[in-house]
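We were asked to recover a plausible sequence for a given structure. The inputs and outputs are reproduced exactly as logged, with field labels preserved.

PROBLEM: sequence recovery
POSITIONS: 721
GIVEN STRUCTURE:
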């Protein structure tokens, strides 16, 4: 321990709030540990310190919260804890006071982790391995927290509260989105500030997105096995601190400035009318299984914080595939998650959260329980019940696939939507029925429980899997760069088999790939529900066939902003689609279609047609050879008002979809007398001008294409229509 002779005053302090809280005069420290017998607060002079300058016994213990108040300590102070207690791994206890551990309520990171054998609570290589006890000190290598000042001038910033049915989500990685952007100054690329500059914000605004969903920005660590390979945990689903923004995305190395930089990013996006949604990982931590390091929760109170095997508490229940699962049955763990969520909503002004592997949070005992305490608490919370809540509705445990089963107030990544749309446009037979159900809002999943179409977050691609470019260009994954012999990542068999992988000079193949990308994007953006676009899909971003770039912090994952003519054309097409969605309320209904006019007339609010312009029959819905269909979305039947009480008025539209390889003459349905159909979009030729097609005339719907028409009154000639 470094020599420091000046005596420091220690007052009892308070057990709340947990973490380090500076009140303008001094700092209160509070740490929950049910099983600890002794807690020491360790103060460090700088990130380069090899040991603590002060080791302060924390004497006060209220309701199993250890606390003290230091009047001389303020923002910028680096600190950690040493926690003593029983060491008996077979009973789940892994206390080791030789290890400096990170405060789970750390608001900023003052020093990152340096991988050394000393970071493990057991002797690596020992015959008993994790049952052994390592006496080496890790103070020189442990991650440290930093005390911060929470004050910030938010000016007039407030939550945007964009309604769900008007929301369009854009999933992006802070670094990957900006690191190669030539419009971002070199020193700001890959940072929160880089994402907040005018050129980047204007791009998002002109594209038409209403919310950015940021891949994890909580402080995370790079897995040791990746660093050995020269790789890193690029995606960030390896959280160690639920409160601290990750320093690797900050342009400043000063903890306080990094926190303020994140806040300024949120402020800039809000001013442009764009919400900020965080991808959060509360299902597990970076400490892994029994063979993992002792970094934070394991050394504070392993039995309380983690789900341990009831058969042998040496081991962890793993519903996440990452070695451990947080114990949301414990009230203090629920408090940790809730405090984190409220902190990001109230102090950092974020607008919502996407919960990674959310089913793991619903496991009360073993089975998934949608009425678990975690969801009850959120539903009753006056702050969190008002923000956007998105579940990734699955985990890796038995019964973990829970699409459609989350409570009212939650939306879900709809994996069934993704799979149905991929199968349809791949040309698989027998898929039209589910395709129609997903396009119209997945009422089979959400209507019965009282939820709305916007409970479905629709997506074709996301960070986990192929990009859209690769989905239409590769027949199988190519993850060789990950160093796992191409065995990692999903065996994705939903990509469209074009026969030729990767680059090709064959014009017909190139045209077909471009059309398939437009088909997927048009379907996504014109479906009921909330569309989510993967960043870069609008400009044909490729990962060279790698569908699991979690460890690739390089050009393979970063967006290439060198736009070719094809990329610019695709970008223009996506912007056009988003404008169409925004202008036509029938694409973003707040209520499910009923198959009839709710006013009681004979008109229907949705009608599905076959290629002959006749309504689909049960026989055709069940037919494996039907790969082409049309749908009329009756805008004139909408009986809704928007959130301001204004009448929703839009056009009646017709969509035609042909997933077969053959051109088909589609008879346009006779909707009613005195009207005609006008073509406004065709994925076969996205630059085609508007064409008017009268009555029962057939339209040549090209193979692998989608067309959109709107209903218009016939022009009056000589006093007659």
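RECOVERED SEQUENCE:
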């Amino acid at each position: 321990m470094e020599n420091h002779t000046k005596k420091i005053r220690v007052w009892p302090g308070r057990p709340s709030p947990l973490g380090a809280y500076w009140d303008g005069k001094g700092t209160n420290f509070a740490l929950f540990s049910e099983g600890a017998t002794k807690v020491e607060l360790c103060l460090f002079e700088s990130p380069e310190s090899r040991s603590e300058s002060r080791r302060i016994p924390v004497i006060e213990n209220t309701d199993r919260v250890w606390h003290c108040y230091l009047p001389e300590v303020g923002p910028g102070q680096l600190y950690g804890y040493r926690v003593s207690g029983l060491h008996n791994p077979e009973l789940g206890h892994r206390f080791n006071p030789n290890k400096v551990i990170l405060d789970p309520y750390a608001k900023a990171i003052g020093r990152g982790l340096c991988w050394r054998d000393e970071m493990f609570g057991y002797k690596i290589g020992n015959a008993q391995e994790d049952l052994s006890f390592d006496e080496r000190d890790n103070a020189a290598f442990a991650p440290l927290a930093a005390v911060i000042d929470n004050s910030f001038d938010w000016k007039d910033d407030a939550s945007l509260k964009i309604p769900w049915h008007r929301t369009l989500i854009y999933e992006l990685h802070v670094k990957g989105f900006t690191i190669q952007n030539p419009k971002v100054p070199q020193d700001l690329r890959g940072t929160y500030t880089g994402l907040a500059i005018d050129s980047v914000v204007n791009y998002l605004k002109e594209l038409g997105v209403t919310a950015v969903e940021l891949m994890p920005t909580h402080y995370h660590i790079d897995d040791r096995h990746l660093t050995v390979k020269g790789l890193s945990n690029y995606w960030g689903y390896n959280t160690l601190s639920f409160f601290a923004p990750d320093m690797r995305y900050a342009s400043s190395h000063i903890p306080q400035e990094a926190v303020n930089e994140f806040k300024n990013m949120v402020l800039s996006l809000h001013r442009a009318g764009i919400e900020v949604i965080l991808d959060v990982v509360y299902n597990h931590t970076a400490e892994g299984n029994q063979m993992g390091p002792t970094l934070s929760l394991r050394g504070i109170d392993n039995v309380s914080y983690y789900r341990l095997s009831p058969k042998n508490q040496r081991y962890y229940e793993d519903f996440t595939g990452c070695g451990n699962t947080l114990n949301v049955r414990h009230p203090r763990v629920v408090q940790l998650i809730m405090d984190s969520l409220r902190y990001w909503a109230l102090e950092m002004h974020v607008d919502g959260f996407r919960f990674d592997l959310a089913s793991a949070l619903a496991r009360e005992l073993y089975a998934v329980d949608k009425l678990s305490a975690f969801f009850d608490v959120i539903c009753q919370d006056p702050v969190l019940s008002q923000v956007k809540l998105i579940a990734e509705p699955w985990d890796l445990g038995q019964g973990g696939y829970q699409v459609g089963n989350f409570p009212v107030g939650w939306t879900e990544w709809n994996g069934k939507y993704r799979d149905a749309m991929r199968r349809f446009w791949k040309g698989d037979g027998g898929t039209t029925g589910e395709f129609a159900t997903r396009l119209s809002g997945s009422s089979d999943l959400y209507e019965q429980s009282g939820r709305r179409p916007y409970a479905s977050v629709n997506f074709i691609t996301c960070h986990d899997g192929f990009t859209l470019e690769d989905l239409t260009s590769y027949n199988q994954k190519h993850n060789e760069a990950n160093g796992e012999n191409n065995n990692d990542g999903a065996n994705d068999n939903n990509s469209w088999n074009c026969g030729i992988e990767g680059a090709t000079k064959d014009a017909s193949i190139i045209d077909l790939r471009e059309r398939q990308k437009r088909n997927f994007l048009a379907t996504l953006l014109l479906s009921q529900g909330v569309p989510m676009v993967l960043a870069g899909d609008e400009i044909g971003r490729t990962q060279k066939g790698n569908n699991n770039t979690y460890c690739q912090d390089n050009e393979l994952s970063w967006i290439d902003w060198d736009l070719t003519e094809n990329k610019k054309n695709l970008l223009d097409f996506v912007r056009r689609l988003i404008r169409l969605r925004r202008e036509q309320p029938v694409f973003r209904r707040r209520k499910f279609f009923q198959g009839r006019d709710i006013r009681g007339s004979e008109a229907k609010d949705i009608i599905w047609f076959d290629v002959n312009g006749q309504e689909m029959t049960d026989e055709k819905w069940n037919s494996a050879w039907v790969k082409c269909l049309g749908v009329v979305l009756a805008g004139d039947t909408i009986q809704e008002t928007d959130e301001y009480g204004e009448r929703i008025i839009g056009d009646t539209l017709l969509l035609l979809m042909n997933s077969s390889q053959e051109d088909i003459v589609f008879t346009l349905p006779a909707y009613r007398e005195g009207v005609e159909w006008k073509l406004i979009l065709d994925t076969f030729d996205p630059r085609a001008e508007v064409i008017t097609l009268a009555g029962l005339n057939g339209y040549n719907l090209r193979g692998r294409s989608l067309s959109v028409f709107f209903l218009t009154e016939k022009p009056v000639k000589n006093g007659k229509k």
